[in-house]
Every structure is written in C-alpha cells, then in structure tokens.
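Justification of computing resources. Each target in the renewal requires a structure prediction run like the one illustrated here; the chain below, 460 residues long, is used simply to show the kind of job we budget for.
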Amino acid sequence: MTVWQGVQILIIGAARQGLASARYLTKKGARVTINDLRPEEDFFELQPELAQLSIQCEFGGHPISLLEGKDLIIVSGGVPIEIPLIQEAISQGIPVTNDSQLFMDAVPAPVIGITGSAGKTTTTMFIGEIIKAALPEGQKVWVGGNIGIPLIEHLDDIQTSDWVVLELSSFQLDLITRSPHIAVVLNITPNHLDRHKNLETYTQAKANILRYQSLKDTAVLNHENSGSMNLEPLVKGHLITFGIEKTNRNSPCVYCSEDKLTISNKDGDTVVMRRDEIQLRGDHNLLNALASCAAALAANFSPQAMRSGIMNVKSIPHRLEFVREWLGIQWFNDSIATTPERTIASILSFKEPLILLLGGRDKNLPWGDLVNLIHQRVKHVILFGESVELISNALGNVGVYEFPISITKCPSLYIAVQTAAKIAEPGDVVLLAPGGTSFDEFLDFEDRGQKFTQWVQELT
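Resulting structure tokens:
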C-alpha cells in the first residue's frame, strides 16, 4: 500500500469526492491542499473541520502557483481535465489522478464496477442487494462510488472477504488505469457531450472500465446495445452478456423468456424470477435487473440471491420515484433523467395520460426522438429553466387535436409544479423527467428532485 506520510497533494474540487480524499489522505499523513473555483463563503460550514485536519485551502480560482512543490494532483469528478491548472500540472510531469484510482489501487476486496449512460445507480443497488442476500454473517458488501459516500473514506474497514460494488461515471473513469474484477457496461449512448465534446472521447473514458482487466476478470456487456458491444475487443477474460432477447453467441447470457428472467450457460437455462416481481417500472429497469443477474452470475452468486436482492429494491430516490397521489393525480420524480434518451425511457414506463415537466440545462444532445414521442404520448408539456426556448423550438407548433394539447413555459421548476397542479386532472400522471441537467437552478439532480418532492408534498 502507498505510504502517504509527507506527500504534498493538491486536490482540485471540494465536493464530496474531493473532501473524502482530503480526509483519508490527511489521516494517512499527507500534506493536503484543497482548491475550488467557488468562493470561500460557500464553504463556511466546512472551515472548522478543514482547519482541524490542517488542510490548506484555496478558494475562488485555480492559480497555477498551487502546483509549486506538489507531488500529486487529485481531480474530483466534476472538474474538467482541460482547465489550465491541470494542463500545466501535466506539462510539468506532476502525476494526475482521482479518488477512484486511489481506491482501486488500495482496496483488498473484489470489485464489481458498473458504468453506462443510463441505469448505473439502479443496477448498482440491485447488485448490492443481491450480494447482501448471498453473503454469510461476517462478510459485508460496500456500495458506493458515484453514489452515496465515496468509499475511499472506508478503505481501512474493508476486508478481503468483503465485496465492493462501485458505480463509475465517465468522469471517474477518465483517469483510471485499474479496472474492476467484474466490469459491467450497461449501454453507451450520447451523454455529457458538453464535457467530453464528442461520442468517441466519451466512449474512450467508459472503456477504461475494461481496458485494464486481466485474463481472470469478467466483462458484462449488453448484447442489444452497440455502444456496449463495440467494447468487446477490449475483453481479455470472460464475457457474459445480457439483453431482453436471447443471443445466439457462445458466451453465457441473461435474457427474458416468456416474462421470466433466465440464465443461459453451458448447464442449460435457469429461471431466476418472473418479470412482474421486479418492483420498479419500465423496460429499462428490466434491463438493469438482467445486467445485475449477469454480474451476480460472474461472481457465482445463486439465482435465489438474485431474485431476493432484486425484489428488495422497491424505490430509488429521483429515479421514477413515486412522490404522492393528490386529488387522483400521481406525481413522479425522475430528476436523474438528464438526457432526452432517459426522458424517453421515463415516458415509456407509463400508460396513463402524462403531464411532462421538461427543462434544465442542455447537454448538446439531440432532442428529435424525444420530440416525436412527446407528440405521440404526452398530454401537456410544461417547460422550465435555461433550455425553455431550445426545447420549445424543437417541439414546434402544435395543431388542433394533436399531442401535446398545450406547451407552457415557466421561469422555474417551482412555477412549473404550480402550473401542473392547475392543469392536471384525476387519472393523470405528472412526471418530472427534465432531459437536461440541474445546474441552471440547483446544485445537482438530487437537489432538484428534493425540491420538487417538497413542493409537491406542499400542494393543498
């Protein structure tokens, strides 16, 4: 394990990943400086803790002078690699890494890593629950990464007999040079092009989850998604695939046959569970469950544990989360739907008449397929936030007797909720599935989802 005593480290980004790394490395004896573009007053509540840990702070900018004397740069997920401070560090030959790499280098337990453009958190939760159901007393599963508390803070508590399940975003994978023992690629479709600039660069970041595997490791790919299967040439070890239809490939797969989740391998076909036993709505969650079974198969967990674990996941915050029924109207929070494609998956999860809350900040992604579906399925569209005019122009004019019946523009999500409450009728579903990020109005998608839930609960 790396000896951190006296090592001079600059951490760029003071969100949860950066702060977790700072706490861990300081306790290991490193001399840590933490830097963030946001002003000092944004970190008022953290100041006592940072002072107690003797962490140096530089807020309000990224001065190049911070590189002086530094042995290592750690970049938080939300910080673009292209900023001048990081580029200068690279040009000076200072190693640049992130908390996920530090964790992967040191973790003693086997790791299942999950990435994809959509479905990461749900699949991570499914797999975590499967392992909980499978492990005997005394062994533990640790679930984290891009969700919850960064697991670097718990490194010293993780035992070799435990399991780790990590959700890994493209931002975290960008700098990784160590892959998990079991790597799951759910899908790759256009996402985060405001950060990665093009699909090829985005895909290359995702590919790092497989790139450094060994012959003993296992890759889990979606045989119905070309973005996922295009990474097959990187597979060095075992391959298991998943999809709704059975594949004719020679490798083991998990699929859905006659509404039953089924494992197919050299031993024949084994039914895991009925589709209607999955507690979460939508075909996309069927795929997430199939992927989870494939990962569990790679880890040699039983079909009984797979069924039990998947059935234990009944709701996940901000992911098609049921908020309340009010005057015969159901309200759902899918704030995690930050791309048009994810909004499509949300819409297809419902048969009821829909009032769709759409907006936020655009990611430079195409809206055409979503617009076509809205014209077929959505009763009313309520636009809010920074991308109102962009989405309005994409939707175009609506004729008489065409869907949507109305398109309403609102300056904020709060006004959009109030507007939906006035428009909605008994039997309708009001769905927050924005299609854009939250950063025009909120801290993140969780903050947006929490505010939405609060405002819906306050309706009287």
